[in-house]
Design goal:
Layout: E1 5-15, E2 20-28, E3 31-36, E4 42-47, E5 52-55, E6 57-62, H1 78-87, E7 90-98, H2 105-116, E8 123-124, E9 127-129, H3 135-147, E10 152-156, H4 166-179, E11 182-186, H5 190-202, H6 209-213, H7 217-234, E12 238-240, H8 246-257, E13 262-266, H9 269-272, H10 297-309, E14 314-315, H11 352-361, H12 368-382, E15 399-409, E16 428-438, E17 441-445, E18 448-449
This protein binds dihydropyrimidine-2,4(1H,3H)-dione and zinc ion (ZN) (2 copies).
Length: 466
């Protein structure tokens, strides 16, 4: 007789990126070992009748404990950031590890691992942010890191001190070509933004609302076109992250029509927020300052269509939390003098999945399989998490059990991150993950934390399969 299961999730509606069916899921030694009808009793059983049994979310775009400039501190460390992720139905996150100017990539990673090790509630891996692409970084360090399982890196076209010029982007993309790793690009034209910031400040327009005005769609569209063109020159696939509008989407479509391999990502803020939300808000508008900024309802519709039609492969949170009422956050002493000094980014790792589920699945815009693809399966494929993102025999038992009938109103007081607000406060949600299993261990049971920090582990990644 075979060994008993450690855990059986019984009678739920299981969804994969291609199918939806009713089954029991048998788990042993951290993996899914059997899927079928009427499995034998496990050491533990979860009754999932009336529930959806989905792969744990993979949020491949989050920022945790990232150095953010003079006196500014991110609201989440690895403990609070991954706890919040877990409560939002995620079992893996991919935060960014920032290379500071003059720093070796290895040193940046060592420091980042030290912050994460033993403190995480979810599994995790890191993307490098390459800010200083010296000959040794590109020639030796980056290829060595790719070989070690850090198989993706991000470059910026905006932010002084972070942005790379076209020559540097080409050189960095060439490392991806040689190694098979994946380049992610933040597409906004820094020079155009600086010009517009100067104009606004000169006219005395310094409130948070002007953040969006100085980062208009054309600035993102131009940079998206350029990033796609540079990737075409080098002949590498590219990930265009946090796409906010239809013009940038058109650039992705056009590049694909030329035969280019492009991965598109969008985020909740581009579906449910607009720049107009800041109207009449004065400094409280700082709560919504992120880049690219949310746009307008036409852009929201374009992003929805992109999710429905396959322009977007990835739906991520871009969780980048700063406290609002805090001298180390949005309302830092300089931040109160101009939008230019408000740290860019908003929290959202816990609300990403409920927002897409409620607005997308429950309102009939996407089906459950597309939801699974956009929130888990595609992230695993794109970023080389070979044993994650699917409910299938042999995969890690990373599972979120959803109550599709749950009704909640987003209130920051109910969330688990380290910020002091949610930009999504007051949004009505239908459907919420109630129980979350990581590597076969129940971490959240019926809304209560039962796992421990340190249960989440670092996972080296394979090359992308796209
Ligand atoms: N880019 C991100 O990817 N996240 C937050 C801020 C930013 O500019
Ligand atoms: Zn970015
Ligand atoms: Zn980001």
């Amino acid at each position: 007789m075979s060994e008993p299961f450690d855990l059986v999730i019984r009678g739920g509606t299981v969804a994969t990126a291609s199918d939806v069916f009713t089954a029991d899921v048998g788990i042993r030694d951290g993996r899914i070992v059997q899927i079928g009808e009427t499995l034998a009793e496990g050491r533990q059983d979860i009754d999932a009748a009336g529930r959806y049994v989905l792969p744990g979310g993979i949020d491949s775009h989050v920022h945790i404990s990232q150095p953010s400039g003079d006196g500014i501190v991110m609201a989440d460390d690895f403990e609070s950031g991954t706890r919040s992720a877990l409560f939002g139905g995620n079992t893996t996150v991919l935060p960014f590890c920032l290379q500071e100017k003059g720093q070796s990539l290895r040193a940046a990673l060592t420091a980042y691992h030290a912050l994460a090790d033993g403190n995480c509630y979810t599994d995790h891996s890191f993307h490098m942010i390459v800010s200083d692409p010296t000959a040794s970084v590109l020639g030796q360090e980056l290829p060595a890191l790719v070989a070690d399982g850090y198989t993706s890196f991000k470059v910026f076209m905006t932010y002084e001190g972070l942005r790379l010029n076209d020559a540097q982007i080409l050189e960095t993309m060439d490392v991806a070509r040689r190694t098979g790793a994946l380049v992610m690009v933040h597409c906004e034209n820094e020079d155009a933004i600086r010009y517009l910031i100067g104009r606004h400040e000169a006219s005395g327009d310094v409130a948070p609302r002007a953040h969006a005005t100085t980062r208009p769609i054309v600035v993102e569209r131009e940079a998206t076109h350029r990033a796609l063109s540079l990737a075409e020159v080098v002949d590498v696939p590219v990930v265009i992250v946090h796409v906010s509008n239809g013009a940038a989407i058109d650039e992705i479509r056009a590049a694909r029509a030329r035969g280019r391999k492009v991965i598109g990502e969008t985020c909740p803020q581009y579906l449910v927020l607009t720049a107009d939300d800041l109207d009449g808000m004065d400094w409280e508008g700082a709560k919504f300052v992120c880049s690219p900024p949310p746009r307008d309802t036409a852009s929201q519709e374009a992003c929805w269509r992109g999710l429905e039609t396959g322009v977007f492969d990835l739906f991520s949170s871009d969780h980048c939390p700063f406290r609002y009422d805090d001298p180390a956050g949005k309302l830092n002493p300089k931040g109160k003098t101009s939008f230019r000094h408000i740290p860019n980014g908003i929290p959202g790792v816990e609300t990403r999945l409920p927002i897409l589920f409620s607005e997308g699945v429950m309102k009939g815009r996407i089906d459950l399989s597309r939801f699974v693809a956009l929130t888990a399966t595609n992230h695993a494929k794109v970023y080389g998490l070979e044993r994650k993102g699917r409910i299938a025999v042999g995969m890690d038992a990373d599972i979120a059990i959803w109550d599709p009938e749950a009704r909640r109103t987003i209130r920051h007081a109910d969330l688990h991150d380290g910020a002091d607000y949610s930009p999504y406060e007051g949004i009505e949600i239908r459907g919420w993950p109630t129980t979350v299993v990581l590597g076969g261990k129940i971490m959240v049971r019926d809304g209560t934390l039962v796992g421990a920090k340190g249960d989440g582990h670092y996972r080296a990644r394979a090359l992308p399969t796209i």
